[in-house]
């Protein structure tokens, strides 16, 4: 064994010197062979005991941990306890004789071994282990050993927490049992133990004489507080890292009240922080501040309900002047203010690269804000003549950080930007909770809170204006305002708007005055021609968007209501006899949009300003224009149905028409007009009813119907959005006759032009001309928009238009068969038509639609569009997202839409069938067969390279899962080659790294395996494709090896069980063969014996029978979980 130790030491020494590449590779192979050897535990112990090489000890510690987990199932209970005891005592007795890296690895090994055997041990055995640790630590005068014992407890907490657990190959249920057991029986004791020792060692720690014991205690206390205190069973993701303390809410429950909130909970913490004030970057100071941040995050049932506390205090004759929550917050605030007693001084200190105190103070305040109310903050530290109070101090700190450049573009990622971001979160948390609870008149604050919020809002706005002005002359990226940058900007404005809503009587006049002033500056710069208006334009864009955020909520998925704070501001303005501040700000927004109608200013207005104005007006109109909800008298008169609302609506439509026809080439502006403004105006029926009666709307609809040059010059996608809005407005018409007339007028010329183009004799020769191709694309996009704008009221006339162009569309498909963008567009159009109409069509029309889709697919198949080589796929990986494999994605979406309604049996009468035939529908179409025809086209084109794209992969496996579950007999009837290809893609799905794709692939396999087994039980042949037993049987090996070998396969056990049970029942010989293979791979007789027992129990333990009923599936799932736990430790080799 000494020779092996020498070999390992030599390999470690060579491995650290990579200059000799051959020797380095040989050393790496030696160490890897040592780690994967069959029984290395004895060698590892000998290395730890006898080697003087820290690198060799580290390799031995890592190998010992892996081998112990791998061999655990084959070890006796005595051997397991002996190994754990050996590592425990070795760690405690060698604290000062080895490196921290080796010590940490061995400490983690103890925790892993404890958890691995946790569920098999009695409570007495677990208690004995911790008692041994405690007695060993308490009975020694060696501070290093005491620190190691604390670190070991922290390693246990980390290992038992789901977010930081090691991948031991255990099912989720076993991890969760360990978590619940430790939480219930030991966490409280761990924290109390650490707090007690920390208090004892804190004085020595400030002098650096405790050898890190106090710091270790603080780290253990923080680990306990970051625990996910979930009652009962629950799932949490294996994130691999502990949640950050500044985003965590600590909810330990009432049983922790005395430990965390009592007067003697941590009396030593405040003095410790005071002593460490001059050591901000020391480990001890950092951990102490982290503990304060976590204590600021305490919330939930640990605080008694206020009414219960008051009753208890009254019964005991105690004054109820302050709640336990407020007392807790007051004590923490006192500790935090020690870090930043003077905001300006704290900022100057941070600028000198000593930002630790400032940032931790911000995190603590943010944590407290997330769990305490604004009123609680104010009550905890209201201030006096010498102390400004917590809210004023928080406002001063925020202003100081903003003044230090926290909003400047060049400071992203700097301490000032981080501090402002954290403090803004704190304000948002405080004010949103206030608004949600209905406090302060819908979130409007008063008194000290109003002054503080108003000061911060004004500081943020002024800094944002400075930043906008600074960026006015920078080069703009082409994608500015889109994607991540646009989302981040709007997210920031949303947070700032929370402060504006809390102080609307200050914020709204400020915003409206800024809008009017900057508007005047822009107008003057354009008319005078001498001044550069770039700065004013940038500032105006910013203020427009911020004002819209303050005034209105986004209308995503629901009808937005007037915010309560805005209603309060309107009422307060009226009560004071002043102009309505909400109305004034609304008029300011409308005034900027109205500049486009000015014959002098409109043609030369900045498209960027107009785009911001359109966005803001769209958001505003969704809430206030012609609102059916009750508004203030002034707002109702200005924008309500009985007031000036219809005139404002007409003006907005006129603005939209002017911008679409007068700002050539401004695609982003045109897109905003259609998707942000017009889409809002047609969203509700009562607004559409007034809309379709307006002359400006008739003008816009007429221009579209006549395909006026100004509108045909728009981009194809904008034309689609415009068509969608125009068709949606049909819901505002009174009866079917009017809707029919409106839709036919709107789309008649477009349908006619499609038919005319498709019928041209020279189409084949002119189809590739750029102007013809551009026009064909625009026409198809208009039809897509019409389909997307389909409503139940207007469905019939819209389908009539679609039906009239179905044959011409097939002709266009043939003409453009070599032009992929047009082919893809046709498939997308078909998908939109099916999605829009499939739920409403009677039998005859449904047959017409299905026959059209059938011919579309047949034509697509005949030209074999989409077939790509691996080389082509590789080159297309460099294309923009959304351009690669567009036709295949469009085809998958079309097939998916067809499955949304079971159209196989329409329940049609003979009369309906005859009507369908008369309309050209012919014989009934089996929609399932239609989908399988699409799959028949798709499957040869799908490659593993194509499935590497997540969107395509997910669509494909979701469709397969549905079809195999609903129509397994049709899957079984596929040709041998088709079925082989389909199952090959299923293998890819099961091996995918995308969880949703894996789930869909397993659901598909389970459905097919169930059909196969039930068919055989009924005396039928089951899955027939010429491959017999091996066709599905091979999936047994695929699933088994993934469950046993993959690191992240523990979560798949439940999903895989539903597929494995019918597979094993239908293919017992294949299961037996896999078992024989697994056993043959094991050379050790003991391992083979354990594995044989585990394989046998899968199909025999707990009364499992040959059935697919619910109870039997549950039993099999439990059996499979137990098998995976035992077998992974044997089969898996790292």
Structure description:
The protein is built from 56 helices and no strands. Helix 28 crosses helix 29, helix 37 runs parallel beside helix 41 and helix 42 runs parallel beside helix 45. The longest helix has 25 residues. About 6% of the residues have low confidence.
First and last CA, distance: 23 Å
- Mean pLDDT, to the nearest integer, reads 85
Rg, nearest Å: 36 Å
The strand count comes to: 0
Q: Helix amount, in percent?
A: 55-70%
Structural class: mainly alpha
Number of helices: 56
**Amount of beta strand:** under 5%
Shape: flat
Q: What characterizes the major β-sheet?
A: none
Spans with pLDDT under 50 lasting ≥5 residues?
233-246, 316-321, 477-484, 865-884, 903-922
Characteristic key phrases:
single chain; 1134 residues; mainly alpha
Brief overview, please?
This protein has 1134 residues and is mainly alpha-helical. It is built from 56 helices and no strands.
């Amino acid at each position: 064994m000494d020779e092996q130790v020498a070999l390992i030491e030599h390999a470690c020494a060579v491995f650290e010197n990579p200059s000799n590449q051959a020797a380095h590779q040989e050393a790496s192979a030696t160490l890897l062979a040592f780690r994967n050897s069959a029984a290395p535990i004895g060698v590892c112990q000998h290395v730890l005991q006898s080697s003087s090489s820290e690198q060799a000890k580290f390799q031995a510690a890592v190998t010992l941990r892996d081998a112990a987990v791998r061999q655990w199932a084959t070890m006796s209970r005595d051997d397991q306890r002996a190994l754990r005891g050996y590592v425990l005592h070795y760690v405690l007795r060698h604290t000062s004789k080895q490196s921290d890296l080796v010590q940490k690895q061995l400490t983690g090994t103890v925790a892993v071994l404890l958890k691995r055997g946790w569920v098999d041990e009695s409570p007495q055995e677990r208690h004995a282990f911790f008692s041994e640790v405690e007695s060993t630590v308490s009975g020694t005068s060696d501070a290093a050993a005491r620190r190691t014992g604390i670190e070991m407890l922290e390693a246990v907490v980390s290992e038992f927490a789901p977010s930081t657990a090691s991948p031991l190959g255990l099912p989720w249920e076993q991890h969760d049992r360990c978590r619940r057991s430790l939480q219930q029986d030991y966490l409280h004791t761990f924290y109390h133990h650490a707090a007690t020792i920390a208090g004892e060692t804190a004085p020595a720690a400030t002098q650096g004489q405790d050898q890190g014991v106090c710091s270790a205690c603080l780290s253990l206390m923080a680990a306990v507080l970051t625990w996910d205190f979930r009652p009962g069973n629950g799932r949490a993701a294996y994130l691999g890292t502990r949640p950050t303390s500044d985003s965590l809410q600590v909810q330990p429950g009432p049983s922790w009240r005395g430990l965390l909130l009592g007067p003697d909970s941590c009396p030593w913490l405040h003095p410790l922080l005071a002593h460490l004030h001059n050591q901000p970057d020391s480990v001890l100071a950092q951990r102490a501040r982290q503990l304060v941040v976590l204590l600021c995050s305490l919330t939930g049932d640990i605080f008694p309900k206020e009414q219960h506390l008051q009753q208890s205090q009254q019964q005991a004759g105690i004054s109820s002047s302050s709640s336990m929550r407020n007392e807790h917050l007051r004590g923490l605030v006192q500790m935090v203010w020690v870090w930043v007693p003077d905001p300006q001084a704290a900022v100057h200190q941070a600028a000198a690269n000593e930002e630790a105190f400032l940032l931790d103070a911000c995190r603590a305040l943010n944590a407290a804000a997330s769990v305490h109310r604004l009123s609680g903050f104010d009550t905890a530290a209201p201030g006096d003549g010498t102390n400004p109070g917590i809210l004023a101090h928080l406002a001063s700190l925020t202003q100081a950080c903003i003044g230090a450049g926290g909003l400047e573009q060049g400071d992203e990622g700097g301490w000032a930007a981080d501090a402002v971001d954290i403090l803004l979160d704190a304000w948002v948390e405080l004010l949103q909770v206030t608004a949600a609870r209905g406090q302060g008149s819908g979130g409007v604050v008063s008194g000290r809170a109003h002054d503080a919020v108003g000061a911060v809002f004004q500081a943020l706005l002024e800094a944002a204006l400075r930043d906008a002005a600074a960026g006015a002359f920078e080069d703009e990226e082409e994608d500015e305002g889109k994607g991540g940058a646009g989302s981040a900007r709007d997210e920031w404005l949303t947070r700032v708007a929370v402060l504006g809503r809390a102080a609307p009587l200050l914020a709204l006049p400020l915003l409206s005055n800024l809008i009017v002033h900057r508007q005047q500056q822009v107008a003057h710069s354009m008319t005078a021609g001498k001044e550069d208006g770039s700065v004013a334009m940038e500032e105006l864009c910013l203020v427009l968007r911020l004002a819209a955020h303050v005034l209105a909520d986004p209308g995503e998925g629901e009808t937005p209501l007037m915010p309560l704070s805005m209603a309060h501001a309107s009422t307060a303005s009226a009560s004071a006899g002043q102009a309505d501040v909400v109305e004034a700000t609304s008029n300011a927004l409308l005034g900027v949009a109205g500049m486009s109608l000015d014959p002098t200013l409109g043609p030369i207005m900045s498209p960027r300003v107009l785009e911001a104005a359109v966005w803001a007006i769209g958001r505003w109109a969704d809430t206030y224009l012609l609102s059916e909800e009750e508004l203030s008298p002034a707002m109702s008169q200005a924008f309500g149905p009985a007031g000036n609302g219809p005139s404002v609506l007409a003006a907005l439509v006129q603005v939209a028409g002017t911008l679409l026809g007068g700002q050539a080439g401004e695609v982003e502006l045109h897109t905003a007009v259609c998707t942000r403004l017009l889409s809002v105006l047609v969203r509700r029926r009562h607004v559409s009813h007034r809309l379709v009666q307006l002359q400006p709307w008739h003008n816009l609809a007429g221009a579209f119907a006549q395909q006026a040059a100004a509108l045909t010059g728009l981009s194809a996608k904008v034309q689609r959005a415009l068509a969608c809005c125009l068709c949606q407005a049909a819901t505002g018409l009174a009866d079917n006759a009017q809707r029919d007339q409106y839709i036919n007028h709107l789309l008649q010329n477009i349908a006619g032009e499609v038919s005319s183009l498709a019928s041209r004799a020279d189409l084949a020769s002119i189809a590739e001309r750029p102007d013809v191709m551009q026009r064909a694309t625009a026409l198809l996009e208009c039809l897509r928009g019409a389909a997307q704008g389909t409503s139940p009221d207007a469905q019939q006339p819209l389908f009539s238009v679609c039906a009239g162009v179905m044959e011409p569309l097939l002709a266009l498909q043939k003409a453009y068969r070599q032009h992929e963008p047009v082919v893809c567009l046709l498939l997308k159009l078909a998908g939109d038509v099916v999605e829009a109409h499939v739920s409403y069509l009677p039998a005859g029309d449904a047959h017409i639609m299905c026959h059209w889709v059938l011919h579309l697919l047949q034509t697509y198949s005949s030209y074999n569009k989409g077939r790509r080589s691996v080389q082509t796929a590789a080159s297309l990986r460099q294309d923009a997202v959304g351009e690669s494999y567009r036709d295949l994605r469009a085809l998958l979406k079309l097939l998916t839409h067809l499955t949304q309604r079971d159209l196989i049996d329409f329940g049609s009468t003979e009369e309906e069938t005859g009507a369908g035939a008369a309309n050209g529908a012919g014989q009934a179409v089996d929609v399932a067969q239609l989908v399988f025809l699409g799959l028949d086209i798709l499957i040869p084109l799908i490659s593993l390279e194509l499935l590497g794209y997540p969107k395509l992969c997910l669509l494909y496996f979701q469709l397969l899962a549905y079809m195999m579950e609903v129509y397994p007999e049709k899957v079984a009837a596929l040709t041998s080659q088709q079925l082989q290809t389909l199952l090959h893609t299923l293998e890819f799905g099961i091996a995918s790294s995308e969880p949703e794709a894996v789930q869909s692939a397993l659901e598909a396999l389970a459905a097919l395996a169930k059909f196969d087994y039930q068919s055989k039980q009924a005396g039928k042949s089951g899955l027939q494709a010429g491959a017999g037993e091996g066709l599905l049987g091979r999936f047994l090996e695929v699933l088994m090896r993934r469950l046993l070998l993959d690191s992240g396969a523990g979560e798949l056990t439940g999903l895989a069980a539903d597929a494995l049970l019918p597979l094993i029942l239908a293919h017992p010989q294949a299961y037996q063969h896999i078992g024989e293979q697994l056993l043959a791979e094991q050379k050790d007789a003991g391992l083979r014996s354990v594995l044989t027992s585990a394989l046998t129990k899968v199909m025999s333990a707990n009364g499992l029978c040959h059935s697919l009923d619910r109870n039997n599936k549950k039993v099999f799932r439990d059996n499979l979980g137990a098998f995976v736990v035992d077998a992974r430790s044997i089969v898996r080799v790292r």
